[in-house]
């Protein structure tokens, strides 16, 4: 369960500026229903070339609604030049923060605003040739690279949180990691802060629940966390997995790999009865 700030809840339950402006000066539609989030932004300028009204329509989660509502409130009264400098971090900060897994909603808002401004200026935002990296969600290499640079992202999970790339079948994880490595070539990412034991256990439990258990249950199996002793993760396989001759491979190729990727590369997984 994600923790939402009071401001996120307020903008979700009582969204501002829902609708569409007739004959807008700026407009854009980004995302798609297929990928789970879609946002349309329209705005109108006053005689002083400031944004006097902005409205949105969205298909998405609570964070998507809150982020779009916040964005339309933020840009009212701004000039086009001022609005062009609004970042996805500005949107998240306006809301008092967003869960990591929902930061892509603020990125979607920034993309919509950028394209709406491009519409006002007479055409789409000029972009270099882009390659689709994540086929599941239609995310390009340039979108991933920009998210990495603007938000100081260092892991595939970070990129998924901010762009959704890699959140489907996972086949693009290697390409995403290559982009990360290219961005930081010649630099050394800052080390991750050391987890407390409570934080480590919580992350292990979350990873097992979100990433591992659904795969095992699909084949009639399950997994139970027995204990965490320093970097040793003691688990027990249940159901069909407990009787499977390939349980050792499951431990290494699925459980340990996921925990290394999302928690810590120092963890070792041991099966117990």
> Ranges with pLDDT <50 over ≥5 residues?
none
CATH architecture of the largest domain: Alpha-Beta Complex
Q: Strand tally, please? A: 8
Could you say which overall geometry the principal axes of the C-alpha atoms support? elongated
Order of helices and strands: HEEEHHHHEEHHHHEEHHE
Give the number of helices: 11
- Mean of residue pLDDT? 88
Distance between the termini: 30 Å
CATH first level of the largest domain: Alpha Beta
Strand content: 15-25%
The profile of the biggest β sheet is: 3 strands, antiparallel
Major sheet: arrangement of strands: 1-2-3
Whole-angstrom Rg: 22 Å
| CATH fold name of the largest domain | Sufe protein. Chain: A
What is the element layout, followed by pairings?
Blueprint: H1 6-13, E1 26-32, E2 37-45, E3 51-59, H2 62-75, H3 80-83, H4 88-94, H5 103-120, E4 132-134, E5 139-140, H6 141-151, H7 156-163, H8 173-183, H9 197-218, E6 221-229, E7 232-239, H10 240-243, H11 247-262, E8 268-271
Parallel strand pairs: 7-8
Antiparallel strand pairs: 1-2, 2-3, 4-5, 6-7
Helix pairs in contact: 1-2, 2-5, 4-5, 5-7, 6-7, 6-8, 9-11
């Amino acid at each position: 369960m994600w923790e939402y700030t009071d401001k996120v809840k307020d903008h979700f339950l009582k969204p501002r500026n829902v609708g569409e402006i007739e004959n807008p000066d700026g407009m854009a539609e980004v995302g798609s229903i297929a990928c789970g989030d879609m946002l349309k932004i329209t705005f109108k300028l006053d005689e002083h070339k400031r944004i006097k009204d902005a409205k949105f329509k969205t298909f998405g989660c609570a964070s998507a609604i809150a982020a779009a509502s916040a964005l339309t409130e933020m840009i009212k009264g701004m000039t086009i030049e001022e609005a062009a400098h609004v970042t996805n971090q500005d949107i998240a900060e306006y809301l008092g923060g967003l869960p990591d897994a929902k930061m892509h909603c603020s990125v979607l808002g920034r993309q919509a605003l950028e394209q709406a401004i491009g519409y006002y200026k007479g055409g789409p935002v000029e972009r270099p040739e882009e390659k689709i990296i994540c086929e599941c969600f239609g995310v390009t290499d340039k979108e991933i690279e920009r998210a990495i640079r603007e938000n100081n992202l260092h892991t595939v999970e970070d990129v998924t949180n901010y762009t959704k790339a890699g959140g489907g079948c996972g086949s693009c994880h290697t390409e995403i990691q290559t982009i990360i490595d290219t961005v930081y070539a010649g630099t050394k990412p800052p080390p991750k802060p050391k987890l407390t034991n409570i934080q480590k256990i919580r992350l292990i439990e979350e990873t097992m629940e979100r990433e591992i258990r659904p795969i095992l249950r699909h084949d009639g199996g399950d997994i139970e966390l027995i204990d965490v002793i320093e970097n040793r993760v003691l688990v027990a396989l249940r159901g069909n997995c407990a009787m499977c001759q390939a349980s050792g491979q499951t431990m290494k190729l699925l459980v340990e790999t996921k925990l290394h990727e999302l928690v810590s590369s120092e963890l070792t997984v041991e099966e117990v009865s």
